[in-house]
Amino acid sequence: MASSEVFEWHPARYLQTSEPVDDFALLVLNQPLKNGINLRKLWKNSSVRVAADGGANRLYELSSFQGKFSNLQAIIGDLDSLTPTVRDFYSSQPQPAQVIHDRDQESSDFGKAIKWIRDSYKMDIIALGGIGGRVDQGISQLHHLYLFQSGAGYDEGRIFLLSGSSLTFLLKAGQHHIHVREEGEADVFAKAVGIIPLREPSRITTKGLEWDVTDWLSQIGGKLSTSNYILPTTRCIEIETTKDVLFTVSLRNVDNEDDG
């Protein structure tokens, strides 16, 4: 059943220079990382920083010569990817990271890290490296958005997947206001968006897109709203959906981004 509540979203705040309104946890997955502006903003703005197993190796490759990404709170997973050098590095910091060996064979390192964050803190989670690499891993990451947000709302916090080109999150059945531009801040997002009913068909209504729809049946194998565009004048996209759907929005290219 769709919620009567209107869910408000301000995803741009996580990637802007001003302090975000709410605390959030940054979860680094075992995917290639670039020492770019978005990573540095997320690292600065996040309240908790966690690596899922080999995600710590990815950070270490950047930290070893810059020293920017050394203050992890935890490394968690089955630890089959974590190297001894990286483990020693993060364990020997002034505020050492907890290294947690979770032997559960029926859950992924991503899932183990989400559960640990949820058990320790009550805040939103941004997973960095989401939907990258192998197709099966990408599908698994999308699966986790549904798995760990199974209720009618977001009582345990919201989960975002951030890749190098897009931000993706789950819209529960109901009404959503997604603020894609914030007053006094530079634009974070580009114009392309998609609304994907991954689990089951949904009827969607939108306002603020170039190709808005009303009570439009969308389903895998049928009609999908992909490669739609945010209008230049739109500050808030309004979406109503009868079932849970994925929302994805492209990131704005940052000129002269520093790799080092």
Automatic annotation (TrEMBL):
SMART domains: TPK_B1_binding
Keywords attached to this entry: ATP-binding, Kinase, Nucleotide-binding, Transferase
Keyword Transferase: yes
EC number(s) reported in the record: 2.7.6.2
CDD domains noted in UniProt: TPK
Biological processes, Gene Ontology terms: thiamine diphosphate biosynthetic process; thiamine metabolic process
Pathway(s) of this molecule: Cofactor biosynthesis; thiamine diphosphate biosynthesis; thiamine diphosphate from thiamine: step 1/1
GO-annotated molecular function: ATP binding; kinase activity; thiamine binding; thiamine diphosphokinase activity
Family in the record: Belongs to the thiamine pyrophosphokinase family.
Domain of life: Eukaryota
Organism: Akanthomyces muscarius (Entomopathogenic fungus)
Name of the protein in its database record: Thiamine pyrophosphokinase
Major enzyme class: transferase
